[in-house]
Amino acid sequence: MVMKLRVAIIGCGKAAERHLKIYQALQDRVEVVAVSDINTERANLFAQTLSAKPYKDFNEMLKKEPVDVVDLALPSGMHGKIGKIVIKKFKKHLLVEKPLALTIREAHELLNLSRRFNLKLVTIFQNRANLPIIKLKEILNKGLLGRIILVSTKFYWSRTQAYYDSAAWRGTWAQDGGALAQQGCHFADMMVYLGGEIESAFAKMGTFLANMEAEDLLVGTIKFKNGALGTIEATTCARPKDIKAEVVILGEKGSAILGGFAMNRLDYLAIEDINDVENLVGGYRENPPHHLGYAHYSYLSHAMDFFREGKKQAFIVEGEEALPSLELIIGLYESAERRREVHFPFRPLRCKLGRGGSQ
Ligand SMILES: NC(=O)c1ccc[n+]([C@@H]2O[C@H](COP(=O)([O-])OP(=O)(O)OC[C@H]3O[C@@H](n4cnc5c(N)ncnc54)[C@H](O)[C@@H]3O)[C@@H](O)[C@H]2O)c1
Predict the structure, then answer these.
(1) Distance 110 CA to ligand 1 centre (A)
(2) CA–CA separation, 181 vs 205, rounded Å?
(3) From the alpha carbon of 12, which atom of ligand 1 is closest?
């Protein structure tokens, strides 16, 4: 019998609630042995539900418990600092909620440590497991759309003041960032995943409807190294409710549009000389319904297989694959602060993400 993967969770908040349910569904392969949160009520609730041991201090937990993988679901600004301890001091594989870190320096430190100790480091970008995105990536890899000239992403989502007031770290530059870094990191990831390497970026941003430090609306233009242009519109200002998310790709031989709430549906696909696109798309037009969220379940389930058996699906974001989207986010913020175009690679001088505050 193959041993179960032993997981410990650090941070028992909103994101971890979904992880908890997925681990319950994966209990034939995964055992959550311990959980930790500085909020003991949350730690106890998780521990009870999972028959795991609760801890307030993650250091104590990792000293005492036999663990293979640590699942980090902490405020974004803590991923770097605590992730480094988990790898360096406790030598554990790391599954980290997006984003990998808030600064390029901390992201590199995590990557270097994981390489040094030969440990796996996976960042959760579950949208990459969306069926339409898997299919679109395959279509792009085969060159069926020809030379790409435009990658445009946008999301018009709603986050009211109550959301930003629900935890002290939300909307702060030191621990979170705004619409782009928090919600938009999935879209920044899609820009680089589908569009390729970035040459330059220019952005304007503002804080329009929420009372917080970081931005709730950012509009950016991007030039890719392959010559294509891109745009990103990132906002949590949609009122009175979420509207939609979209990715548009135009190529010299065809076009595609991903839609739905979170890029979970292929709304449009047309390719020169291919009349039967339905046959090409097959069952990949839309994520099937899943009570735990199709993409999240699929991503975590395959991440666990990767930790356990080394079997890596192409959509799993391992190690440095999490870096380009972070660089794009920081490049867009840097541009908005400097009020001019930023050419990659660049040294962040003005971007406030991950700086200051109580990291
Ligand atoms: N993949 C996704 O689509 C997705 C969705 C939501 C959130 N996230 C990410 O998940 C992370 C957590 O977000 P959230 O909404 O769950 O936040 P949250 O505030 O609900 O949860 C964070 C938890 O961490 C705990 N915590 C803080 N410091 C700690 C410490 N030193 N040790 C142990 N626990 C500690 C807090 O008490 C809290 O319970 C963020 O990085 C966010 O970007 C990802």
Answers:
(1) 18
(2) 12
(3) 39
Q: Tens of pLDDT along 63-120?
A: 999 999 999 999 999 999 999 999 999 999 999 999 999 999 999 999 999 999 999 9
Integer Cα distance of 11 and 97 in angstroms: 10
Spacing, Cα 54 to ligand 1 middle (Å): 17
Report helix, strand or coil for 138: helix
Structural domain boundaries in the chain: 5-126, 128-285+319-343
Residue 17 is encoded by which pair of tokens? 């609630």
Tell me, which fold does domain 5-126 have in CATH? Rossmann fold (3.40.50)
Give per-residue pLDDT as tens, 185-230: 999 999 999 999 999 999 999 999 999 999 999 999 999 999 999 9
**Distance (Å) from CA 345 to ligand 1 centroid:** 30
Q: Assess whether the C-beta atom of 175 lies below 6 angstroms from ligand 1.
A: no
Q: How much distance in Å is there from the Cα of 226 to the middle of ligand 1?
A: 36
Task: Determine if the pTM surpasses 0.85.
Answer: yes
C-beta of 171 in contact with ligand 1 (< 6 A):
no
CATH of domain 128-285+319-343: 3.30.360.10
332: its two tokens = 């867009």
- Residue range 133-186, pLDDT digits in tens: 999 999 999 999 999 999 999 999 999 999 999 999 999 999 999 999 999 999
The two tokens of residue 174 are 């030191």
Write down the residue that tokens 């979904």 correspond to. 18
